[in-house]
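Newbie here. four chains, one complex. Structure please?
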Amino acid sequence: MLQRLANLRKSRNWSLQETADRLGIAKSTYAGYESGYRQPSLQALLQIANLFETTVDYILNRTNDKQEKLELVECLESEIALSLDGIPLTKEELYDFIAFTRLKRRIKNNDEE
Amino acid sequence: MLQRLANLRKSRNWSLQETADRLGIAKSTYAGYESGYRQPSLQALLQIANLFETTVDYILNRTNDKQEKLELVECLESEIALSLDGIPLTKEELYDFIAFTRLKRRIKNNDEE
DNA sequence: TATAATTGTTTGCGTAATGCGTATGAAAGT
DNA sequence: ACTTTCATACGCATTACGCAAACAATTATA
């Protein structure tokens, strides 16, 4: 399940020791992840994704997309600044769009059934 | 960490029991995930993401800590990726949003004059 | 070549966390 | 009032995590 870890690490020319040090865990612990002997805790998994600057889904082999995406729901909850035509996007504008797109997606899914 | 689970479930009008049944686990087990009392195994996590048709990153509330300002027009032109509910935002969805918001802003400006 | 240093692999063990059944409480339906 | 559904909490057996340490394998340095 975590076969991609070895590639992510080797592409950075890091040893198991160095990777473990960067994660703040024991070498044998991280080695266990790569070998499939053990599974990381969710906390460790998040730190690994941060370290390799990719998504958890990519690490778990759930997608081929390495790119991290900016989640709009997150933008609503926090103060991440989006702008359109140089004008800051209000929460209301974003909220309307989220509702709008969710509705559109639901309709699309229904049509396909 | 798994605060989004309750919303994902409730937006589908599922009970804890029904969700647990769909996942093939005990109700108390799934309830433990939502309450934060327990953490799912990676296998369970993947099944949950599949059930709710979203990403593991979204379920884990993983935030990319880029605090930079993002211009939506640039998102259209480049490959800066947005997502909604853990599902990648298509260019078409983003384009509709831009047109929609521009129109709304124009109407609002006219009203204020 | 010999030797040290670095890297990768595996094991044993103490501890912590999981997952289930079950019990309890709350809310809703008949 | 009574039953049914729903949500939450607890006890406990089992699993498996994370670490240190030992071991093997590769590379570096003299």
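Moderator note: The interface with chain B takes residues 1, 39-42, 45-46, 49, 55-57, 60, 62-63, 65, 67-74, 78, 80-87, 89, 93, 96-98, 100-102, 104-105 of chain A (CB under 8 Å). Residues 56 and 113 of chain A are 30 Å apart (CA to CA). Thread marked as resolved.
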